[in-house]
Every structure is written in C-alpha cells, then in structure tokens.
Amino acid sequence: MSGMAFFRKEVTEIVRRKKALIIAIVFAAFALLGIGTALLTPKILDMVAEEMATQGIVMVPKDVTAMDAWMQFFKNIDIPLIVMVLMWAGCFTEEYRRHTLVPLVTKGLKRTDIFLSKVGALLCVWTAGYGLYFLLSYGYTLYYWSDRVPHIIPAVLLEWAFGIWIIGLWAFFSSIASGSFQVLLGVGGVYFLCTFLTIIPKTEKYLPIRLSSGLSLLEEKLAIGDFVIPLCVAGVCFALCIAGGLACIQKKSI
Amino acid sequence: MFAATATLADLKQYLPLIIPIVVIEFVLLIYVLWHINTHETYKTGNRVLWNIIALVGMNFVGPILYLVIGKSDE
To answer: Where are the alpha helices (DSSP H) in chain A?
Structure first.
C-alpha cells in the first residue's frame, strides 16, 4: 500500500464513519447560530433596556452592523475547532492500542506515510469545515447587512493558519502519546501556556495565539504587519512539530 | 416574553436563517436518537443517559456531545 492509497483510505474512513458529516454540521451550526446571535442582539438589548428603564437606567440602543456578525464569527470558531481536536484526539492512539497499523507496516507501508496521510487528512477536514463556516457566515452577512468590513480576507486566513498551528501540535502529541487524553492534555497545555505567556507584554507579539485575534484586525487595533511575526513563528512551530512527529513515530511501538 | 416584541415582519426577516437551523437541529436529533437506540456499545455512558442528554440538550449541544464522546467508533 502506498502513501497515497493510505491517504485515500483515511479520507474514506472519515466519510464512512460520518465524521465528515458531523464536522460539517458543527461548523454550519455555529456559523448560523453566530448570525442568529448578531441578529437578535438588538431585540435582547431592547428587552433588557425595558427592564432597566423601570429602574431608572437609560440604555442607548445600538444598531447591529456586519461588524457584529464578524465578531460572532471570530468568537465562535473556537468551539468547532475544539470539537474537531476532540474527535481526532484518538486518531493515532486508537490505532496504537488496537495494533491495527502493524499489518500495514509489516507489508511495507512507511511510518512516515501513515503520519503524513493522517495529518494531511485532518488538514483537509479543517480547511473544508472552516471554508463552509466562512461561506455561510459571509453569505448571510451579505444578505442581512449591506455595510462592508475591511480586512476580512486576511483576518479569516490568519484564523485558518491558527487552526493549522493547532493541527501541528495535535500531530506531534499524537506521535508520542499513548492515549487520546494525553494528546488533549498536550495540545491544551501548549495553548494555555501561550495564553498565559500573553500576560508578559513583550512576548505577545511573537506568540502564534495572536493569529486567532483576527477581530482586532477588523477593528483596526492591529495592522496586518503585526501578524507577520506570529505567522512565521506558527509556521516554524508547525514545521518543527511535523519533523518531531516524523522522528518520534519511527520509534513508537505500534 | 420575546413573542410580545417580535412582529410578523421580524419573523419573516429571520426565516432564511431559522429554517436551516431548525432543519439541521431536527435531522441531527432524529439521527442521534436512532443511533443511540440501535447500538449496544458507547465510548462512555449508557443508553438511558445518552437518551436524556440528547433530548435535554436537543438544541445541538446534546446530539453533538453524543457524536463526539458517546458514539462508538466500531
């Protein structure tokens, strides 16, 4: 079996086990719910304002713009990404546990091909799911609001790169962990470490975690140039994770 | 409370969004309930627990939870 055949097998498995369908539903659901939340915000605020008025507090109503919809877009994306990592946490470790990779390796399939196929398949899933999420959000935003928000495309692409960085971490921890929980702990650990490091003002501009703050690009708090370093750091980190994963999987007992 | 402030025109405006959400929600719920009750093994939990979770959290949360951490990979 060649690497390409194994990749096709991975993709077929994702479709047959309904993982593709679940991911599509999760991404679509959060895109629609984000738009719904943005649409209903003035209604909810009106109700709150009525309550407040009885207590003598006056709230100034605010019009909902396309910006609010994009705010929801960047806030909500975390959950589908977490769901995706949760679903794929056992992708490698289940195979180690059941020794299902042994017959393939003894028949001559390279371990590097297995690793790259699985990573490639997840990259495709993320790209497709995120693409669906973006298209739905974009379509509905155009339908409901006529105003335009600048820098949408770069902000959306940066968030996509953030997902790629997470997938890199997932790949590395999958190659060394022996249980899905360890993979989650590894990915989550690095993520929280980065979040924690943002407290130190000077480190903030280097951390890949900044890629997920596309919202500040839309609000023009940050310029595109501010994302160049985090993007490079994320790229190097992804390359190191893949290289490390390739090295570790050679020695892993499967 | 909401019905008092939402007019028919509002509802019409939201329909293109509400219809797909409702369709996805119910298709997902029916599929998940069917899956729970036609399969014997789960990654975690048992049949009664998953039926309750799917029905209580029927607005996406329950079914998605089941598919992610309940549905067996077999």
So the answer is: 3-16, 19-54, 66-76, 78-88, 93-98, 102-106, 111-144, 152-176, 180-197, 214-218, 228-251
Cα(B29)–Cα(B32) distance, integer angstroms? 5
**A33 vs B22: CA distance, rounded Å:** 11
Quick check: B28 contacting A, CB < 8 Å? yes
What pLDDT is recorded for position B1? 45
Contacts of B18 in chain A (CB under 8 A): 36
When pLDDT is averaged across residues A90-113 and rounded to a whole number, the result is 91
Structure tokens at A57: 């507090």
Q: What is the 3-state secondary structure (H, E, C) of A130-171?
A: HHHHHHHHHHHHHHHCCCCCCCHHHHHHHHHHHHHHHHHHHH
Q: What's the ipTM?
A: 0.82
Does the CA dihedral A105-A178-A19-A121 come out positive or negative? negative
Q: pLDDT tens string for chain B (74 positions)?
A: 444 555 777 778 888 888 999 999 999 999 999 999 999 889 888 999 999 999 998 888 899 889 888 888 76
Closest CA to A141 of B9, B12, B16: B16
User: How many residues would you count in chain B?
Assistant: 74
Answer yes or no: is pLDDT of A77 > 70: yes
Cβ burial of A243 (10 Å; 0-12, 13-18, 19+) is exposed
Q: Are B61 and B39 in contact (CB under 8 A)?
A: no
> Which residues are within 8 A (CB) of A106 and not within 5 positions of it... i.e. 6 or more apart?
none
Does residue B29 sit at the A interface (CB-CB below 8 Å)? no
Q: Which two tokens stand for residue B55?
A: 């029905």
pLDDT in the model for residue A238? 96
B73 touches chain A (CB under 8 A): yes
